[in-house]
Amino acid sequence: MDNGSIGADSGANTSATRYGQAYEGLRSLLLSGSMAPGTRLTEADLTRMFDVSRSTVRSALVRLVQEGYVTSEVNRGVRTRSFTVAEAADILEARETLESALAGKAAERATPEEIADMRRTLRDMEEAKSRGDQDAYSRCNRRFHQQIKQAAHQTTLARAYDTLLYPLVMRQYRNLSAQHPRSGSLEEHQAIFLAVVTRNPDAAVAAMRHHVGSARRALLLDKSRAPSA
């Protein structure tokens, strides 16, 4: 291979890396729930945020539109996704089914190292709750659920779970006047962990289903109270 070909390959790899970083960074930002539904995303702002070219940002946005994370409309631009009550209910029902199955598999397949990581996360959750750090608690919450998914060692279930947009639904329909963390949240996570560490798949499925169902019921999904998009 000549030097010109090597240079071209290097440039292509760098471009692909920058694109991947922009896509993953923006996807993570959307899934963090930090952006309100209907927030406009401008190429200029995203270019500065991720330090990439406009064409790279544009490519990442096209993919995110295709995957349903954002919407693109003429004269309105690209905006964060909002969901009808029916759409939200469907997504949360699917989450309950998939994540319960993942918890059951985690109880069967979690390694000692993965169990130790979950234990550390629960300890961090307890500390965050005790000092009233809502943001830290939320980060630990998300980490625990990711750890359950990874400990399941079930690629097909995990892939289906990753396509769900439930963090966006949670962001749109959460009750801002309610206590956070929700009463019982920490205890529900502890019950899931206990079922995993005692290798009880049925208990893990039940504990996760109860936890996800409780989180769903705490949302404002009643049509008469649902926030506007």
Please characterize this protein's 3D structure.
The protein is mainly α and 229 residues long. 69% of the residues lie in helices and 4% in strands. The chain has 10 helices and 3 strands, in the order αβααββααααααα. The protein has helices spanning 3-31, 43-50, 54-66, 85-109, 112-130, 134-152, 155-162, 166-173, 185-197, 201-217, and strands spanning 40-41, 70-73, 77-80. It has a 3-stranded antiparallel sheet with strand order 1-3-2.
- The gyration radius over C-alpha positions equals 20 Å
* Tally of helical segments: 10
* Rounded mean pLDDT score: 88
Taking pLDDT < 50 over at least 5 consecutive residues as the criterion, the unreliable ranges are 5-10, 223-229
Strand order of the biggest β-sheet: 1-3-2
Q: Strand count, sense and closure of the main sheet?
A: 3 strands, antiparallel
Assess the beta-strand content as a share of residues: under 5%
What's the end-to-end separation, in Å? 55 Å
Topology as a string of helices (H) and strands (E)? HEHHEEHHHHHHH
Structural class estimated from helices and strands = mainly alpha
Principal-axes geometry comes out as globular
How many strand units?
A: 3
Fraction of residues in helices?
A: 55-70%
